[in-house]
Specification:
The complex is a heterodimer of chains A (249) and B (282).
Chain A (H helix, E strand, L loop, with lengths): L5 E10 L2 E11 L4 E5 L6 H9 L6 E6 L13 E4 L13 H7 L13 H14 L14 H14 L4 E5 L7 H16 L4 E5 L12 E6 L1 E6 L1 H7 L10 H5 L4
Parallel strand pairs in A: 3-7, 3-8, 5-6, 6-7
Antiparallel strand pairs in A: 1-2, 1-4, 8-9
Helix pairs in contact in A: 2-4, 3-4, 4-5
Chain B lengths: L7 H26 L5 H19 L3 H22 L4 H23 L4 H8 L7 H30 L1 H6 L4 H23 L4 H15 L3 H26 L3 H19 L6 H5 L9
Helix pairs in contact in B: 1-6, 1-8, 1-9, 1-10, 2-3, 2-4, 2-5, 2-8, 3-4, 3-8, 5-8, 6-8, 9-10, 9-11, 10-11
Classes of the chains: A alpha/beta (249), B mainly alpha (282).
Chain lengths: 249, 282
């Protein structure tokens, strides 16, 4: 079996003495499309920050590509799409500039971009369907198009593992379809792995290899088809329930 | 050189003004987009304390102002990064401490002399060759550094958390911006004065945003507007015997208003000055 790209072992984390993440162990291997789901306040975003090295766990350990996050240097192998990054209405930045920033993780940032950089940027734009908008201001795009631009930025570094935090909240149907195609393309065509943190799985539910249900600790970790058989009780907010369960059954 | 730059003092003013007119918007673009536009004012006020300290002790005020400005910039960045104080509170702390320190030092000196006033309100027409040389060196450092680092600095402007995950040296880049801002402000003090120094970092950027869709284009056009405003401001000041520092800033403001109107702005001027907002839904 391939070594996991991402591994967490018995991770715990508290805010002011209040446990937010408790005894969480998980792994993501090459070629896997994994969703981390849970209700609001279940610790998803906190766990994600720990996995990415933005927070240090109180207990347990995390490895990115076999290294501790703070010692992990091959940053181009990790693509990250943050939760709904919003650009100021006045920020002058084209889609091309935002996507090109993704190449900074792939090489020396003081070096001018070369032919491989331009090819990777072009491929990323094509994957998310934004080639025609490449010279448009990102801040003038719709929320869904903006999100696709940020996915392209993550894809531009040609990552082995793509991590996305709530990427489709409030995104229109057309952009959700493009979003699904981009992720499936990354997994199937490039044998990359995806860790999708969300409580909306409708767009990609049928493509998932594994679902991890988090509510402070891991309540379920397995294929989507097995989730309904376990009778997992999440106690999610009523409004959240159909968003992520839809499509799994 | 032709009128109005036929006198040496006007040539020195033009050279110093052009350096600052190019550099201030270059750094201002990064501060404006990160809602730190008034950092220039905060640093400027601490630099004023440095100036008066230099005048009091007999050390060339440029050096004492530079030391105070760099220390203030690093202090503000430290407070912001550690989250010990909100951006506004951190700014206010340095803003008022700086001006208060300057006032106390002026009091110790016994009088509000011309040297102090030249730093408060600018005195571009009295720039010496020595000061121009230092402004030139500071300007060269700013331009070359921005040219080398504008790509990671742009990534930082868009998303600091993403930049950390991408492995960019976020803390070092933030420190770099703070130091460059301090250097630019000290260079600009004799041009427009501490009270107006932030205007040269903000107004040309607002104009540049109206002209260009891209960040790189905004950097270029902001500098063009900044330099052009210096030239036009000096001409107007000579022509009508106006205070040159204030005239340069008024030209910057006029350029922005004219561009807003000429571009038939899909919005009013406030939109271009809006620093942050959410994306459209959908």
């Amino acid at each position: 079996m391939n070594a996991p790209l991402l591994r967490a072992d018995r991770v715990t984390f508290s805010y002011g003495g209040e446990p937010v993440v408790h005894d969480v162990s998980l792994r993501v291997s090459p070629g896997e499309f994994v969703a981390l789901v849970g209700p609001n306040g279940s610790g998803k975003t906190t766990l994600l920050k720990i996995l990415l090295g933005l927070l240090r766990p109180d207990g347990g350990s995390v490895e990115l590509f076999g290294s501790r996050p703070d010692r992990f240097r091959e940053r181009n192998r990790l693509g990250y799409v943050p939760q709904r990054p919003s650009l100021g209405s006045g920020l002058p930045a084209t889609v091309n500039e935002v996507v090109a920033a993704g190449r900074l993780a792939a090489g020396a940032w003081w070096r001018p971009p070369g032919a491989p950089d331009r090819e990777a940027i072009e491929h990323a734009l094509t994957t998310v369907g934004l080639t025609e908008q490449r010279h448009a201001r990102v801040s003038e795009l719709s929320g869904g198009q903006q999100q696709r631009a940020f996915i392209a930025r993550a894809l531009a570094s040609e990552p082995d593992l793509l991590v996305l935090d709530e990427p489709v909240s409030g995104v229109d149907a057309g952009s959700q379809a493009r979003f699904r195609e981009a992720l499936v393309h990354h997994v199937r065509a490039h044998e990359g792995a995806v860790l999708l943190v969300s409580h909306e799985l409708g767009a990609v539910a049928s493509d998932l290899d594994r679902v991890i249900v988090l509510k402070r600790s891991v309540r379920f970790d397995g294929p989507p088809s097995a989730l309904s058989e376990t009778g997992v009780s999440l106690g999610v907010h009523e409004s959240d329930l159909p968003l992520w369960l839809e499509g799994l059954h | 050189m032709p009128w109005p730059f036929d006198r040496e003092y006007m040539q020195l003013a033009l050279a110093g003004g052009l350096v600052v007119g190019v550099c201030a918007p270059l750094i201002g673009a990064f501060l404006v987009q990160r809602r730190m536009a008034l950092m220039g004012d905060g640093i400027g006020h601490v630099a004023f304390a440095g100036d008066t300290g230099g005048l009091l002790t007999g050390i060339w005020p440029f050096w004492t102002a530079l030391a105070a400005a760099v220390a203030a910039a690093l202090g503000m960045e430290h407070l912001r990064r550690r989250g010990r104080a909100s951006g506004d509170v951190a700014l206010a702390l340095f803003f008022y401490s700086g001006i208060a320190g300057g006032v106390v030092l002026v009091g110790l000196a016994g009088s509000m002399n011309a040297g102090v006033l030249s730093y408060l309100f600018g005195s571009i027409l009295t720039i010496t060759r020595g000061e121009l040389a230092l402004i030139g060196v500071l300007g060269a450092v700013v331009v070359l550094t921005v040219a080398a680092t504008h790509r990671p600095l742009f990534a930082l402007v868009v998303d600091e958390e993403w930049s950390s995950v991408a492995g960019l040296p976020v803390a070092s880049l933030n420190t770099l911006v703070a130091i460059l801002a301090a250097a630019t402000i000290v260079a600009a003090m004799r041009i427009v004065g501490i009270l107006l120094v932030a205007a040269l970092m903000v107004l040309p950027v607002a104009s540049g945003q109206l002209i260009s869709r891209s960040f790189r284009g905004t950097l270029v056009w902001s500098s063009v507007v900044g330099a052009g405003s210096v030239v036009a401001g000096l001409v107007a000041a000579r022509l009508w015997a106006l205070a040159p520092g204030g005239t340069i800033v008024l030209v910057c403001a006029a350029v922005f208003v004219l561009l807003s109107v000429a571009s038939g702005r899909r919005s009013h001027p406030g939109r271009a000055l809006a620093l942050r907002g959410g994306p459209r839904t959908g």
